[in-house]
Prior knowledge:
Elements: E1 4-8, H1 14-21, E2 31-35, H2 36-42, H3 44-52, E3 57-63, H4 67-79, E4 84-88, H5 92-103, E5 112-116, H6 124-129, H7 137-150, E6 155-157, H8 160-170, E7 175-178, H9 197-202, E8 207-210, H10 212-215, H11 220-232
Parallel strand pairs: 1-2, 1-8, 2-3, 3-4, 4-5, 5-6, 6-7, 7-8
Helix pairs in contact: 4-5, 7-8
The structure holds cytidine-5'-monophosphate.
Amino acid sequence: MKNDVIIALDFPTREETLTFLDQFPDSEKPFVKIGMELFYAEGPQIVRDLKACGHKIFLDLKLHDIPNTVKRAMAVLARLDVDMVNLHAAGTSSMMKAALEGLTRPDGTRPMLIAVTQLTSTAPETLKKELLIDTPMPETVLAYAKNAAASGLDGVVCSPLEAALVKKSCGENFCTVTPGVRFAGGDAGDQKRVMTPEQAARNGCDCIVIGRPVTQAEDPVAAYRRAVKEFLG
Ligand code: C5P
């Protein structure tokens, strides 16, 4: 699962999603991320359909609830045959362990499970003011990543800027999945802390998630290939 470029399919409908994916040749099936917008609009069938087309799928629903509820929800997601799912590390290690149990299929296989540490949209001052966390952002992210690793999870979603720190502390095999990727000179949009695919690779990111620089490009297939080339070298 390492070293992948994942396209964020942030589209409101199935039609727009398929129109976008139809631009790729049959021989090229990018790893895609289905988030809340598309999943809530189209339901689990969109996951089954894209899987049937040959795409690997990261289902980005960021679960966060009591352990029993998350465990049961994860069992449902495992049956959808996705490749990667996530939850909030803030749900604590008992929730993360329950999630892993729910996700593990009767034959022992399961999708990768990664944890959101702190959302990249949360500013350091908000951490203190609203979440009442006095520990600085990098240490907080690292502590959450360590909880995730100790709970048996496969990795975390973090900013490319924190990936190196997480890898150093949680080990080479602990996966870092990072959004906030932009081409050099590209429009950052609402992302505050961005890196190019090449910088992300150098900073220890295993998978990058890239949305608008590919989906809104004049030639999305060329933009995707550029991201793959820059990230994988
Ligand atoms: O268009 P862009 O490349 O900014 O898309 C990034 C994707 O990664 C979006 O789907 C966004 O929801 C997701 N994401 C993020 N930051 C996080 C977690 C997920 O940008 N911390």
